[in-house]
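U., I forgot to send this yesterday:
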Amino acid sequence: MNCAEENVTVLPEGTELLRGQYRIARSLGQGGFGLTYLASDSLNRVVVIKECFPEQICRRVGKEVVPAGPESAPFFASVLEQFQAEAHQLAGLDHPRIVGVHQTFAENGTAYTAMDFVEGVDLHELVDHAPGRLTPRLVDKVLRQVLDALSYLHDRGVLHRDVAPDNLILGANGDVTLIDFGAAYSSGDAEGGQSQRMLAVKDGYSPPEFYCAEGLQGAFSDVYSLGALCHLIFTGEAPPDAQTRLEMVDAGRMDPYVPLESTDFDIDIRLKLATDRALALEPKDRLRCADDWFAVMDGPIPKPLAVFDPAVIGVIEELVHKTNKVLTPGLPKALQPKTASEDTRKAPPPPKQYVDIFGDPIDDVEAYLREQDGLIKARAKTPTRLLQQGDFLRRPSTEGVDHAKAASPKPDAPTLFHKVRDRLKGDRSTPNSRLFLI
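Result:
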């Protein structure tokens, strides 16, 4: 046997299995647990054959599948046992939205499962090439069918563990079928004494507990994967993978997942809430099962939250995180003990100082007001002739005036006129002009 033959991974076209009952037509693809083929059975019906081929721990020699090395042999034997046990269990399932399993058999050093061929297009291809077909009505139908199928599985203690767009086939009639149970297992496996299991993850769709061999798994694990599927349908992209999210949160950084509830995508707010809760990192914060999802999806419509810029939220969160490190919490102000300064009564404010129009302080307000009243009354008694056209402004006559008295006003009783004159004397120059009336 030459090296080229030893390096062949997939079975060649025309290979017969189970003594000619199945004939390989072509390879359909490869996953973490095995290879998938399109084949025909002895009645010339189209079927799908799944071959147990965990490529990390095995290799093909001719048609035979053998462990990659002596250290892989126990692990490969355990995976092979797991594959056949699950196939027998899945053969007993009967649900219109779950692919039908015909039989399982051992051959070529490995095991095979024959299943129905589901004609249609997988959701991943649909999102990539024909997203317009995914109308709100069709999405609602698909989501309800997947939830119904998962509820059927979970009620029987079976986890699919690979709810992803490439494992959901949409038929021409709009019905969806859940396929590829290569990663599925029953909750009773641990009780059956199985010591080793093949763990597989699909970044973006696998929940955090799949990245840890000791992680507790349950119906909530499939719910997380369904949330990731919805995120792809609604946004065109899978959410950040769970391992990256966990690492960033553990490092004290912001979870890179942006909740749909905080976006302006034109989606039913209930579907946003269900998707966000399904994608919670902690299982306790997650929707636990299909019934929980139905309860949110069919529940009352809540008021949507305001849309915030995720970058702003991140900055605020970082500032709060840094601030909390340097501040110590204290009592509310109402409960804090009063200080001595707060108990001491404040001194009364000084009396208000009144000033005249020039800013000079007025010591006796009453006397000032009496003086102003007197001036007003004196002006009212003095008759005033209106100036006429042709009048000149002359110096008033000084006849009969005591010039000594006129030149010596009382220094201790300045009038308002004197104050105005004195105030303006140094600020304004004498006009060099002739005054006249026109």
